[in-house]
Automatic annotation (TrEMBL):
GO terms for biological process: proteolysis. Residues 46-168 form the NlpC/P60 domain. This is C40 family peptidase. The lineage of its organism: Bacteria, Pseudomonadati, Bacteroidota, Sphingobacteriia, Sphingobacteriales. It holds the Pfam family NLPC_P60. Belongs to the peptidase C40 family. The keyword Cell inner membrane does not apply. GO terms for molecular function: cysteine-type peptidase activity.
């Protein structure tokens, strides 16, 4: 006995398969919203200053070099110095400790895009600086990872944060 396919069932099945295949080809893959990388990307996307966004993306990944002031290598105070000068027209001192003395103290909760955050990893004196972005993120020249956007709320930073301030 010869079996025949039901045309309605056949057509319906074919449509379902085609929709499934088509949907697989257009699926967008995204990073889950709770990772540090996606939060850092959100901080960058929420920058008010497009020149600041461009400056950071142009420098991201440049390796750390003590005393460096170009894309062959840069240190934290050099990065803050160049960023503040190019984006905000403010000429900072070259050394992070002097930059901390130059900045007007500002409470952590009142920080705005372009403000400076200062750290003391080696004792009492300021020995590291970064530039605040938004939502608890800042950009700096890390000694191990180069220029990077980082989460200021991490204990590694909160435990050594000694001052925040404004120069704008």
């Amino acid at each position: 006995m010869k079996r025949t396919l039901n045309p309605v069932l056949y057509t319906s099945s074919l449509i379902v398969i085609m929709l499934f295949v088509a949907s697989c080809g257009t699926r967008k893959y995204t990073v889950k919203g709770n990772t540090n990388a996606s939060k850092a990307a959100d901080a960058m996307a929420n920058l008010k200053s497009k020149p600041l966004y461009k400056f950071i993306t142009d420098w991201t990944g440049v390796k750390y070099r003590f005393g460096g002031l170009d894309k062959n290598g840069i240190d934290c105070s050099g990065f803050a110095y160049l960023l503040e000068k190019e984006i905000y027209g403010v000429t900072l001192p070259r050394i992070s400790r002097d930059q901390a003395n130059f900045a007007r103290k500002k409470n952590y909760g009142a920080l705005q895009e372009g403000d400076l955050v200062f750290f003391s990893f080696g004792g009492n004196d300021v020995d590291h600086v970064g530039v605040y972005l938004n939502n608890g993120f800042f950009v700096h020249a890390s000694t191990t990872r180069g220029v990077i956007v980082d989460d200021l709320n991490l204990p590694a930073y909160q435990n050594v944060l000694v001052k925040s301030g404004s120069v704008n």
